[in-house]
Design goal:
Elements: H1 3-25, H2 32-40, H3 43-57, H4 65-80, H5 97-121, H6 126-145, E1 149-150, H7 173-191, H8 193-203, H9 205-210, H10 215-241, E2 244-245, H11 252-262, H12 274-293, H13 298-323
Antiparallel strand pairs: 1-2
Amino acid sequence: MSDEAFITLLVVSAAVFIFLFASLLVPNFFQFQNVVNLVTNNWAVISLGVGVTFLLVSGNFDLSVGGIVALSGVLAVWFAQAPGGANALASGFGMPTWMAMLFALFGALAIGGLNALFVVRFKIPSIIVTLGTMLVARGIAQVITHGSQRNTNLPDDFGFLGNIYLFGTSIKLPVVLMLLLVCVAVVIEKRTIFGRLTFWIGANPVAARLSGIKNARHQTHLYLFSAAIAGMVGILLASEFKSGFSSRGMLMEFDALVIALLGGVAIAGGFGSVVGMFFGALILATVTSAATGLVLSPDWQYILKAIAVFLAIVAQTWALTLKNR
């Protein structure tokens, strides 16, 4: 068994164990519908986790995704709002909904391009660059919304995408798109040259470059990929709530990083999987949901997240050391 398969199996086992343990502590927790809720309520973070996972595997960070979620949602609403509203927050550009969402996605890609420019071209550490662009994106969103939100004077079809239910169930279109994204990402990771290049660059960037791999171009594509996912998440959330909120996506960048680490992605690069990230998200969702069921304060939930990340990193190192001894 490969190291990656070994760690993924451990993550899956941990997710099952934590769910069963939570079921012993929280009444009515052991239900299939609860598992469905854990996935559907966290579709946005899981989607962001796909892009973050690829970048972590390549040896880079992306902390800008939360800011991009806010910016793309605000831009989509602003572009779609009819001009001449009652006040500044009710006036926009009057674009058709599809065009407003497309231009908002371009805004997200612009932040991704900015990330790639400073990380790839100017060799600035990715954690610093993406932390800065996260603040820039959220700052622009706050300027556009005056620190509040835009939720009036929108066309009727703006809320369509985010509120389509699947065949009369309680599952919305964004959840289905998230599952499709995860499946496509697994195929890219396991079955394509693009996926293999990501691992090679993360494992040894110097050797990859000397082998003829164009590291800079590949990393640029990864940042644009991550930004595009964050942009689509922001647009879908704006459509679901029919509003552009400057604080939307707050701390999502850290949750996306947490679920990747819980899923066994190596923080130094070259190791990890999208499947592991998905089950890492289930672990975090289970811990958070169980803490809520036990009526723990939100402050304790932050502490539990910190403990979970620390234990995940230590357990990964310990397990690989034992396996390869």
